[in-house]
From TrEMBL:
It comes from Neoroseomonas oryzicola. InterPro entries: FAD-dep_OxRdtase, FAD/NAD-bd_sf. Keywords: Oxidoreductase. Residues 37-391 form the FAD dependent oxidoreductase domain. It comes from the Bacteria. GO terms for cellular component: cytoplasm. This is FAD-binding oxidoreductase. One of its GO terms (molecular function) is oxidoreductase activity.
Amino acid sequence: MSTASDPFAPGFVERPYWWEEAPPTPAQAPLPDAVEVLVVGGGIAGLATALELGRNGVKALVIDREAIGWGASSRNGGALSGAGSLGKVRSDLVETFGATFVAELAAEGEQAFEDFEALVAREGLDCQYVRCGRFVGAHAPKAMEALKRRAEMINATGSEEAFLLPRGRVREEIATDRYHGGMLLLRAASVHPGKYVRSLAQAAARAGAMLIGGVEYRGATRQADGAFVVETNRGRLRARHLMMATNGYTGPAAPWHRRRLIPVASYMIASEPIGEERVRAALPKLRVYGDTKKILYYFRPSPDHTRILFGGRASFVDNDARRASVRLHRFMVDLIPDLAGVRITHGWFGNVAFAFDMMPHVGVHDGIRYAMGCNGSGVVAMTHFGRVAAQQIMGGGNSVSAFTRLTFPTRPFYTGNPWFMPLVGTAYQLRDRLDGWRVKDVG
């Protein structure tokens, strides 16, 4: 039996639950002297780039400071959806960009979801993909108005698969009385993220990509012919094309990109096995779930339907997985009281990267391609933008994606160190409390 102060099951580990079946494996090989395309970052974006290049006869080298797939690509919640897959469809975007351009962005998001499904089928990716639907809970009455506008914009794309549920029907989706209604998206799905990134890496390798972990990028110099001389901890190599796909793990060796990304730790826990019957009692439709709070929750059943996986921004101060796990357990039981007494076996975190405009970005700067800023929704987005970057490398230009027309903003004096996040976190907590959201003490 767990308590609020000690929710840990015997043998609790600070390691992603996903790694039990699909741990990142080191990929070692000698570093070549020259390559056609060098991709920095062995997550979804980098691997998707290499796969698309390989399918078109261009061989890429993918390097990562850690093992291939070690970062957020194998640590996330494994939830994906259509219109929300390339950034949330927000009503304020129309005021900023105009209705026509926003319609292009939304349509591209819908197509990216379809393309993702097609990729899984074409490559035979072993990732436990299920089109399960998504429920977004309204944390306050006024949030229902925002969800109504969002549903209207999603349905305007032609999918017509976003529905509002009143408060009286929330228990059809979640065993809670905390939400004031919500929105149901039918065109949404789940994957096992560890298996997905592993299968994507295998597909890229089959297409001719070379994958090497334990290689730290330390900078590049562009030559007169447009190629790059790249410095790494394992020596120097020459690349005709260079692609940055480091997202929330972008380091000081890529200062232009780092200044445009806000890395934020996102935390998750996995419950002990409680059996499918009890999981279904908590989450009757076995969907993926989120809510409208500033400090949001995201959660889902495990692929085998025997556990609850629960995530959120449990800390803006430190990266302590154990302390964050205690908070997340408290949040989970406060939201779904029937889970009182359920212990947790895994707790972990990974860095997501937010852009200042809360939009994903793909493009080129000083000859270096990039796909970054997934803003917490990266499985479909980074798969899509990896493919876009590859098409650009092969000469597709900016016509391959409406998102290439977005500028990638930064802020004066920002260098990539998000010193302001504790202040932002406090403001977000206050906003949620003013909206009426309080976490009860549980024990």
